[in-house]
Automatic annotation (TrEMBL):
<dbReference type="InterPro" id="IPR000644">
    <property type="entry name" value="CBS_dom"/>
</dbReference>
<dbReference type="Pfam" id="PF00571">
    <property type="entry name" value="CBS"/>
</dbReference>
<keyword id="KW-0129">CBS domain</keyword>
<dbReference type="InterPro" id="IPR051257">
    <property type="entry name" value="Diverse_CBS-Domain"/>
</dbReference>
<feature type="domain" description="CBS">
    <location>
        <begin position="7"/>
        <end position="63"/>
    </location>
</feature>
<feature type="domain" description="CBS">
    <location>
        <begin position="71"/>
        <end position="127"/>
    </location>
</feature>
<protein>
    <submittedName>
        <fullName>CBS domain-containing protein</fullName>
    </submittedName>
</protein>
<dbReference type="InterPro" id="IPR046342">
    <property type="entry name" value="CBS_dom_sf"/>
</dbReference>
Protein backbone atom coordinates (compact mmCIF):
# COMPACT_ATOMS: atom_id res chain seq x y z
CA UNK A 1 0.00 0.00 0.00
CA UNK A 2 1.30 3.45 -0.90
CA UNK A 3 1.32 6.26 1.61
CA UNK A 4 -0.80 8.53 -0.59
CA UNK A 5 -3.70 6.13 -0.03
CA UNK A 6 -3.80 6.83 3.71
CA UNK A 7 -2.24 10.26 4.22
CA UNK A 8 -4.29 13.17 5.46
CA UNK A 9 -4.56 15.71 2.66
CA UNK A 10 -6.57 18.42 4.41
CA UNK A 11 -3.70 19.66 6.57
CA UNK A 12 -3.92 22.84 8.62
CA UNK A 13 -0.76 24.89 8.26
CA UNK A 14 0.46 28.20 9.65
CA UNK A 15 2.78 30.89 8.37
CA UNK A 16 6.12 31.76 10.00
CA UNK A 17 4.72 35.04 11.30
CA UNK A 18 1.86 33.28 13.12
CA UNK A 19 2.24 33.70 16.86
CA UNK A 20 2.79 31.05 19.52
CA UNK A 21 -0.71 31.81 20.80
CA UNK A 22 -2.31 31.43 17.37
CA UNK A 23 -0.58 28.12 16.65
CA UNK A 24 -1.38 26.72 20.11
CA UNK A 25 -5.04 27.73 19.68
CA UNK A 26 -5.23 26.02 16.29
CA UNK A 27 -3.67 22.86 17.78
CA UNK A 28 -6.33 22.85 20.49
CA UNK A 29 -9.14 23.59 18.06
CA UNK A 30 -8.31 20.77 15.63
CA UNK A 31 -6.86 18.44 18.28
CA UNK A 32 -3.39 17.92 16.81
CA UNK A 33 0.10 17.97 18.30
CA UNK A 34 1.96 19.49 15.34
CA UNK A 35 1.43 22.17 12.74
CA UNK A 36 3.49 22.40 9.56
CA UNK A 37 4.77 25.90 8.84
CA UNK A 38 4.57 26.94 5.21
CA UNK A 39 5.58 30.02 3.30
CA UNK A 40 4.05 30.55 -0.14
CA UNK A 41 2.95 26.92 -0.12
CA UNK A 42 6.42 25.57 0.65
CA UNK A 43 7.11 23.63 3.82
CA UNK A 44 9.76 25.50 5.83
CA UNK A 45 9.38 23.83 9.22
CA UNK A 46 7.13 22.19 11.75
CA UNK A 47 6.10 23.08 15.29
CA UNK A 48 4.94 20.60 17.89
CA UNK A 49 3.12 21.18 21.13
CA UNK A 50 6.35 20.18 22.86
CA UNK A 51 8.23 22.90 20.93
CA UNK A 52 5.77 25.48 22.20
CA UNK A 53 6.28 24.34 25.78
CA UNK A 54 10.06 23.76 25.75
CA UNK A 55 11.24 26.44 23.32
CA UNK A 56 8.49 28.96 23.99
CA UNK A 57 6.99 28.84 27.47
CA UNK A 58 10.04 27.46 29.26
CA UNK A 59 12.14 30.21 27.66
CA UNK A 60 9.50 32.74 28.75
CA UNK A 61 8.83 33.97 25.23
CA UNK A 62 5.78 36.21 24.92
CA UNK A 63 2.69 34.58 23.42
CA UNK A 64 2.87 37.02 20.50
CA UNK A 65 6.32 35.73 19.45
CA UNK A 66 6.43 34.62 15.82
CA UNK A 67 6.37 30.84 15.51
CA UNK A 68 9.43 31.15 13.24
CA UNK A 69 11.44 31.71 16.44
CA UNK A 70 10.84 28.14 17.67
CA UNK A 71 10.03 25.99 14.65
CA UNK A 72 12.11 22.98 13.69
CA UNK A 73 13.61 23.78 10.29
CA UNK A 74 15.08 20.37 9.57
CA UNK A 75 11.98 18.41 8.69
CA UNK A 76 12.11 14.80 7.59
CA UNK A 77 9.65 14.42 4.71
CA UNK A 78 8.29 11.69 2.52
CA UNK A 79 6.88 11.46 -0.97
CA UNK A 80 3.72 9.92 -2.35
CA UNK A 81 5.55 6.92 -3.77
CA UNK A 82 6.49 5.64 -0.29
CA UNK A 83 4.94 2.40 0.85
CA UNK A 84 3.48 2.13 4.34
CA UNK A 85 6.47 -0.02 5.30
CA UNK A 86 8.93 2.59 4.04
CA UNK A 87 7.09 5.34 5.95
CA UNK A 88 7.22 3.28 9.15
CA UNK A 89 10.94 2.71 8.64
CA UNK A 90 11.60 6.40 7.95
CA UNK A 91 9.63 7.50 11.01
CA UNK A 92 11.22 4.85 13.23
CA UNK A 93 14.80 5.58 12.19
CA UNK A 94 14.30 9.33 12.62
CA UNK A 95 12.20 8.98 15.79
CA UNK A 96 9.39 11.16 14.51
CA UNK A 97 5.63 10.88 15.01
CA UNK A 98 4.52 12.77 11.94
CA UNK A 99 5.79 12.67 8.37
CA UNK A 100 4.89 15.54 6.05
CA UNK A 101 4.43 14.38 2.47
CA UNK A 102 5.82 16.78 -0.10
CA UNK A 103 5.89 17.08 -3.85
CA UNK A 104 8.12 19.74 -5.48
CA UNK A 105 8.78 21.20 -1.99
CA UNK A 106 5.04 21.74 -1.51
CA UNK A 107 3.24 20.01 1.30
CA UNK A 108 0.44 17.84 -0.01
CA UNK A 109 -0.30 15.71 3.03
CA UNK A 110 0.87 14.30 6.32
CA UNK A 111 0.99 10.87 7.90
CA UNK A 112 1.02 10.17 11.63
CA UNK A 113 1.60 7.11 13.76
CA UNK A 114 -2.15 7.10 14.35
CA UNK A 115 -2.79 6.87 10.59
CA UNK A 116 -0.33 4.00 10.36
CA UNK A 117 -1.87 2.21 13.34
CA UNK A 118 -5.33 2.43 11.80
CA UNK A 119 -4.00 1.16 8.48
CA UNK A 120 -2.03 -1.71 9.97
CA UNK A 121 -5.05 -2.58 12.13
CA UNK A 122 -7.03 -3.19 8.96
CA UNK A 123 -4.33 -5.39 7.39
CA UNK A 124 -3.80 -9.08 7.93
CA UNK A 125 -1.59 -10.41 10.72
CA UNK A 126 1.11 -11.49 8.25
CA UNK A 127 1.15 -8.00 6.70
CA UNK A 128 1.42 -6.45 10.18
CA UNK A 129 4.26 -8.80 11.08
CA UNK A 130 6.11 -7.79 7.89
CA UNK A 131 5.61 -4.09 8.64
CA UNK A 132 6.91 -4.49 12.20
CA UNK A 133 9.81 -6.69 11.16
CA UNK A 134 10.83 -4.35 8.36
CA UNK A 135 10.68 -1.32 10.65
CA UNK A 136 12.79 -2.96 13.37
CA UNK A 137 10.05 -2.30 15.95
CA UNK A 138 10.22 -5.88 17.27
Amino acid sequence: MRIEEIMTTDVETCMPESTLQEVASIMREINVGAIPICEKGRLIGIVTDRDIVIRGLAEQLPSDTAIAEILSEEVITGTTDLSVEQAVELMTVNKIRRLPIVENNRMIGIISWCDLAITTHSTTHSEKDAIIKNSKLE
